[in-house]
Write a structure and sequence with these properties.
By secondary structure, the chain is an alpha+beta fold. It is built from 11 helices and 11 strands.
């Protein structure tokens, strides 16, 4: 199941919140067993510091990044990732730092850099910096257990991390990456929906991932998709894809449901019958019979 991050992390028993101000937050993750193929949409720019073990992140165009102990990876907002978490010597441990727009804007304003042309943002390795390792160790010593939320302190510590990485990065590379993230334009709604309609995401998730409130998302969607509501468009696109799969392959209904983004088999069967007049199984049989004639 595809998760929206960091929202999903707040309810994960393996992850504790050190500090948070909305979705700008610092999270501590520990695992004893490997996790493979964990899917997620990054809804807020993030930096993950691997303290123990190894993290593999698959981003755009199947590009695979391996983040080893003591290293960091930058994950831009709005990307879809598949991650493998590999404990070594008993466990995996990482700190995850999520930055909302106001946090990045405040940091970029202090850099006084010339305007840069925004380019497509991709996951990027940030390397290992002893000063960041020391910063992480201090955080864990200061907050050894679940803490009361401190919004101001969360912002201070997130800004401190950005400054530490910036000061340790050669030739202003990190500043360039962060400035580019801050300059990114709001994502094309049509492009995002056409690419991700098979993901089992809610309307609220789609709105957040395209940089819109739910109300503006619904309004912009109807403007760009001929007055159709997001919910109806998703149903139609998923059912049309399901029909195509059923007509061209011998696939179980459960597999089809998962492939097109439904999370409930009975709901899928009911919606399919309403659109095509027959059940998915009958539709598949009819199409195969037609090919044999």
């Amino acid at each position: 199941m595809t998760k929206v991050l960091p929202q999903h992390f707040f309810d994960n028993p393996d992850i504790r919140t050190l500090l948070a101000d909305g979705h700008s937050c610092i999270l501590h993750k520990r695992l004893n067993n490997p996790l493979w193929g964990k899917e997620g949409f990054i809804s807020t720019h993030a930096i993950t510091f691997v303290r123990r073990g190894k993290l593999r992140v698959e981003g755009a165009e199947d590009r695979l990044l391996e983040v080893t102990e003591g290293n960091m990876v930058l994950l831009p907002k709005g990307i879809y990732t598949v991650s493998d978490i590999l404990p070594e010597s008993g466990d995996f441990e990482a700190l995850m730092f999520f930055f909302e727009k106001k946090t990045l804007e405040s940091f970029v304003e202090t850099l006084d850099l010339p305007p840069q042309r925004a380019v497509t943002a991709e996951p990027a390795l940030l390397g290992a910096h002893p000063v960041v390792s020391g910063f992480v160790d201090n955080l864990l010593r200061t907050y050894p257990s679940q803490t009361a939320q401190s919004r101001q302190l969360a912002q201070i510590k997130l800004a401190e991390l950005l400054y530490l990485i910036h000061s340790a990065s050669p030739d202003g590379q990190f500043a360039g990456l962060i400035t580019n993230l801050n300059n990114r334009e709001r994502r094309s709604l049509r492009e995002f929906m056409e690419t991700n309609f098979t993901r089992p995401l809610s309307i609220e998730d789609f709105a957040y991932l395209t940089g819109r409130s739910v109300a503006s998302f619904r309004r912009d969607f109807k403007t760009q998709f001929g007055g159709m509501s997001p919910k109806q468009w998703l149903i139609d696109r998923r059912l049309d894809l399901a029909a195509k799969i059923l007509a061209n392959s011998i696939t179980s209904i459960t597999e089809v449901v998962q492939e097109v983004g439904y999370d409930n088999v009975p709901h899928f069967i009911k919606a399919f019958g309403q659109k095509f007049g027959v059940s998915p199984k009958q539709y598949s049989i009819q199409k195969r019979q037609t090919l044999l004639v």
